[in-house]
Amino acid sequence: MKIALIAHDGKKADMVHFLSGFKDRLHQKDVELVATGTTGSHIERAGFDVQKLLSGPIGGDAQIAAMAAQKELDMVIFFRDPLDKHPHEPDVQMLMRICDVHNIPLATNPASADLMFKALTQTL
Ligand SMILES: O=C(CO)COP(=O)(O)O
């Protein structure tokens, strides 16, 4: 099971807080984490093993989309900041579109991610 994690700058603390709530359960399960560069650094500092890709604005979102298109991902958690502007908004839209094309579970806020992780940790 491979999960991609991405958070805009205004949501990185939320991502770390969210993941920390599942730390024990994720460590017990066979879950690999992959993240865009800066999100990955935050997650790593919180004590998780994570594969770090490029930072989002320079291609990290596109790398995650490519992994999704190649069926290498089982879930994408993308905490977007709807109150900020992003120079790479086309990449953000492309990633979400690719998730829909390939029917990959995609959570864009902590409430939906929480439901998905609860389902995941109960069934794995
Ligand atoms: O920009 C992002 C998502 O669109 C996230 O990228 P970083 O994790 O490198 O900040």
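^ 1,3-dihydroxyacetonephosphate complex. The mean pLDDT is 95. Residues 15 and 103 are 23 Å apart (CA to CA).
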